Fold each of these.
Amino acid sequence: MGWRESLDTLGFPDGWWFGRQPDYSDKHPNSGHHPYARPLHMGWSKDARGHWVSSSEDANTWEVICEECGDRDGPVETQSDKVKARRGPYSSKELAEDAATRDFNGGL
Ligand SMILES: [Zn+2]
């Protein structure tokens, strides 16, 4: 369970962590990026507060999310070219995790 999920469980309001100093103490010292692979999210819409939410996932297709690359979540069409290139989609979790590792180690 990641720290953000843990916080969700505790009921912290969305957005409270913005402006918080990141803690990279357990991360690669040369990378401030925290990319991760996940099943491709689909069916995007915005909730009442303007946050992207997806209604479905494709269990056979993977994407890589990295907020430090400027990925603000939401459909890939709304992302920068750099984010699009990293997002994928990838045909397997292994390929997606390879791409995430490359980003973590210094980017594309
Ligand atoms: Zn990144």
Note: Helices lie at 3-10, 81-87, 93-104.
Amino acid sequence: MTIPSKLRPQGATPRGKALIRIGAASKSFALPKGGRFDAVRNVTLEVNEGDIFGLMGKSGAGKSTLLRLFNLLERPDSGSITIDGQELTALGKKALRDARQNIGMIFQQFNLLQNASVFDNVAFPLRIHGSHDKAQIEERVRACLDLVELGDKADTYPAQLSGGQKQRVAIARALASKPAVLLCDEPTSALDAETTRSLLQTLKDVNQRLGVTIVIVSHELDVLGAICNRVAVIEDGAVAEEFALNDGDETPRKTALGRELLQYARAANASATSAAKEAAHV
Ligand SMILES: Nc1ncnc2c1ncn2[C@@H]1O[C@H](COP(=O)(O)OP(=O)(O)OP(=O)(O)O)[C@@H](O)[C@H]1O
Ligand SMILES: [Mg+2]
């Protein structure tokens, strides 16, 4: 399928190049009784253009904090964040606001504006940024809603939608500014199994059809195994190991989570292969 040019991310680098570089980033929080807690410790990571990159780890491991460093929702105490050639940590306020147009984000609880229609939710970031006229906003919002198959829901309100539909509105909103990167924090954790499958398909489409690079945090190994091509295991705020999925690499994994994830990924791969064979009547 050809991708309409209006939906393609701007300024994307060729597939395979490092699009995101996290350089020795650390983040600590002040503890109420004094002292500090190291939530992210000296993390260095690269995510390539076109990746669906998973961050996995136990609750409290620091996955969400690390993801929030990617777009500077949390500013690292030290280290650098570079996305699409721009070192975010070196930018002033206005330049950072512009650079963030290149990074969409979705959350477990959708974070939609309850008193705004679906259309206005998706239009919100474009209106806030202020560099689009009314006709451009209308065209862009309609294209994004069509992409997530909610073209007929523009005038409804979040309360009238299912969880899966709400998350698809959040995806449309995150894609409104044509970002090269989509950050997802537990995007399917509030959804049932069937809705999860269809949402993962939407994320895959966004990755494959639009070329958007995805970084996804999840504690659900079947989710990560089904869509990621690369993952990092986070333990105590640091990268315990990082590896590719389904590339035939048989190197034993260092962490129990890594070993478990490989089993999920192989199962997902095998079931996709047998479904394809069935469809082809082989
Ligand atoms: N704003 C904050 N102030 C103080 N401590 C924080 C703050 N945000 C996170 N933390 C602490 O940092 C650690 C990592 O939190 P984080 O939310 O990144 O974990 P997580 O891996 O996403 O966990 P979960 O799977 O439960 O979402 C936790 O111990 C948490 O209590
Ligand atoms: Mg979290």
Note: DSSP finds eight helices and ten strands in the chain.
Amino acid sequence: MVINYASNHTIIRETYKGSVFMEQQHFAELCQKLNQQGDNISKSVLDEVNKYRAQYNKKKLPVIWIETNDSGDNNIAFLNTTYPYAGQVFTDMIDLLYSNSFMAAQGKNALNILEQAAEKYKGRFTLVVEGAVPVKDNGLYNIIIRTENRSITALEAVTWLGNLAEYVVAMGTCGSFGGPSSARPNITGSMGVNKILDREVINVSGCPVNPDWFVGTLAHLLMYGKPELDDLGRPTLFYGYTVHRHCQRRSYFDRGNFAEKLGDIECMFSLGCMGPRTGADCPYRQWINHVNWPVKANTPCIGCTNKDFPDGSSPFFLPLDKKGKK
Ligand code: SF4
């Protein structure tokens, strides 16, 4: 069997079976051929990660996960992960050392946990930042830990932890590029993590992120280290092709048949679809346990993985040449 490798169009052959266990190439194939089998990436990935960890005695990925300036949509999307379910991610894939969204500790107790984790796992943990970072007024508009004596802003936490981490993963479009948190008029001065840190940041964009993109990125870090990234710092495994390339309505576009209103079956380029300039694998990975995605649900792609989302996509239902105007 021959398949296309999404990142560079190189033709690779299914030679991994019978060779060294779980080559990186094998992992890439797993991520890309999910729908050909009616399967999904998360289930395949968990099985393979568990086998790999057992064979090579790999430890789980230590993760410090901080939620900053976002709507909470990304951790909710993550909780929709299936095979592995969220609990399995925590028990089998990652050591969640700290999370201001998922843990019970508060205030000084939470700060103690964070300080101890950052010290113990210095240079080895993965920092996940879910949300943008407000910088106006010294970051005052997003405080992630408050004790009796101290308030720690997202700006302070990201700067501190980002310089200690082995990898930094920006989860969602706010974390990656500022996203809705930095939309006009951006009164908090919010921006993406890579504008705060003078180091490489892996951007797993999306508003919200697809759970597969996030879980798949963590799995890649655990097994092989940093995945191949595109020029926006995103894993090419998931963002290497445009939505438009694999859209089910592409034949209408190619024949110039465009929808006049929502609900029409033709291509929705005329209704503001951003698919032609949005990198993401939504048409075949889909959402909600892999059953649907916006165009299939009769609404245009709004380009939520893009660097200029949402300002560059607005108004959502006007054609591309009319978007992004103030
Ligand atoms: S609906 Fe959007 S993504 Fe699909 S073919 Fe039309 S323009 Fe492309």
Note: The mean pLDDT is 88.
